[in-house]
Specification:
It is found in: Cell envelope. With 484 residues, this protein is of the alpha/beta class. It is built from 19 helices and nine strands. Strands 1, 2, 3, 4, 5, 6, 7, 8 and 9 form a nine-stranded mixed β-sheet that branches.
């Protein structure tokens, strides 16, 4: 996770900050989830002897997919469900009638697929998401992914005069790059991260969303008196906390603080803005404003408790509307806000929010039918498939459009409003896709999780996390990335 500063990704003269600004101006939205386990990938990239022969390139088959070769697609079975992908698979099979796609969905991406990567027999297309997401930085560093540039340069599914890359929301291509022009990941969704709440519950307290931390504490105290906790979060997966904590750090100290953290710079975590934000979150614990038992809850349990009115606020991504649809009351009036700041001395204004591409799709380097995997993505990036996704899962896609005729749900509408309010003040931390193990296991579980459970003070948590970052920076077996 890193802020929206320019990165040297082959976009001369156009940095990520500019691209994300334009994304925000368009009012984009939707999801990801990251990994608790890092991938122990072996070096790869070589050809498998079982690769499908290339097919003939035609106007209807611009990628030259072998029209008789099988294709395997493994989806993360998470907040977006699997129906949208199954619908896109049917289109693939209709276009290639001699082909039967082997489609499956699982929550255990890493434990299911890492052995297949190591054996050189991975699927052709993977939605690499969830708590068991494979470490993207490791996969890129070990040459285990296919460059998706041929897909991006292919004619779009709807308009042969437009390349796929020209139909995508600003910033999506750049997010898939790591250290050059090649694009390793296609983020299919667009996520707004922040603090989610029930507007109805906030109205019942006769309060507005708090902009300063003193106001936040006052709202939590009022909620506590009415028998409602101020906050809950995914205690078993405390790397959900950064969804609101990281943009708060950026708001308080400026984008450069998040860049320094991403860049693994010495003492980056010791910046006064980090201390101020850690102290603020710890105060929620100290004052008893966190729902009792939260450290033992997983993401579903914490979201359910929140939806039931047991807690007012929860840090999350825009997938929460769909993931919790069965427990959110109809009159809940779901809303999201950019994180509360400390006070008027913050470097960035209230409204500073984290938004970025999510739900990362990859095509392995040793896929038997890489062209088929990319063609499936080309289909998913059509207007019809994008509209199908948005209408079914309450999120936008990387496709720049596909919302005509769709009534926006409360969460989606609130997310668009939050992005409009943010304007240029959109940050995009990169830790979660550059250093998955560091972000999930170390910063999340061993640092923030321990602090919010009361087992570490903010000072102890910062010292511990800085140590983890320093270890990663010195580890020569890990490929390192930097904002340019």
């Amino acid at each position: 996770m890193g802020s929206t500063s320019a990165e040297n990704h082959g976009t001369e003269g156009v940095g990520r900050r500019d691209l994300i600004k334009r994304s925000a101006a368009l009012g984009l939205i939707s999801v990801p989830t990251m990994s608790f386990l890092s991938a122990c990938a072996s070096s790869g990239g070589g050809d498998s002897g079982d690769k499908a022969k290339a097919g003939k390139k035609t106007a209807k088959n611009p990628l030259g997919v072998n029209d008789t070769a099988g294709m395997e697609f493994v989806l993360f079975d998470g907040g977006f469900g699997k129906e949208y992908a199954e619908d896109a698979v049917k289109i693939y099979e209709k276009n290639f009638p001699e082909v039967k796609v082997k489609f499956s969905a699982t929550q255990k991406i890493q434990s299911t697929l890492q052995p297949r990567f190591n054996q050189g027999t991975p699927p052709d297309l993977i939605d690499n998401s969830g708590a068991e997401q494979m470490d993207m930085g490791v996969l890129v560093g070990k040459n285990q992914l296919t460059d998706l540039t041929p897909l991006l340069d292919a004619p779009s599914y709807d308009d042969p005069n437009k390349k796929v890359r020209d139909t995508l929301r600003p910033g999506i291509v750049e997010m898939g790059q790591f250290d050059g022009e090649k694009v390793w990941i296609l983020y299919y969704a667009y996520t707004v991260y922040g603090v989610w709440y029930s507007q109805k519950a906030l109205d019942s307290l006769d309060e507005q969303y708090p902009e300063t931390w003193d106001q936040m504490l006052a709202v939590c105290e009022k909620a506590k008196k009415k028998g409602m906790a101020g906050w809950t979060y995914a205690g078993k997966y405390p790397y959900y906390l950064p969804f609101s904590l990281y943009p708060m750090i950026g708001k308080v100290g400026g984008r450069e603080v998040l860049d320094a953290i991403d860049n693994l710079e010495p003492n980056a975590w010791k910046h006064p803005a980090v201390k101020a934000c850690f102290d603020a979150y710890y105060e929620l614990y100290k004052k008893g404003y966190v729902l009792k038992g939260t450290p033992g809850l997983d993401h579903i349990q914490s979201q359910t408790a929140w939806a039931q009115g047991k807690a007012l606020f929860i840090p999350n991504g825009s997938w929460v509307e769909n993931e919790s649809a069965n427990v959110i009351p109809k009159d809940f009036d779901l809303a999201v806000s950019a994180p509360t700041g400390i006070d008027s001395s913050d470097k960035m204004p209230f409204g500073t929010i984290w938004a970025s591409g999510g739900e990362p799709f990859i095509v392995p380097a040793k896929a038997k039918n890489a062209e088929g995997g990319m063609e499936q993505l080309r289909i998913m990036l059509s207007e019809a498939s994008s509209k199908n996704f948005t209408s079914k899962v309450k999120s936008l896609t990387a496709y720049n459009g596909g919302t005509d005729g769709i009534a926006l749900t409360p969460g989606l509408k609130s997310g668009v409003a939050a992005l409009e309010k943010a304007g240029e003040n959109v940050v995009n931390p990169r830790m979660q896709d550059w250093y998955v193990q560091l972000q999930k296991e170390k910063i999340g579980v061993s640092g923030l999780g321990e602090m919010m459970a009361g087992r570490l003070t903010p000072a102890e948590a910062i010292k511990k996390i800085q140590g983890f970052a320093d270890e990663t920076a010195k580890d020569t077996s890990i490929k390192h990335y930097k904002h340019q």
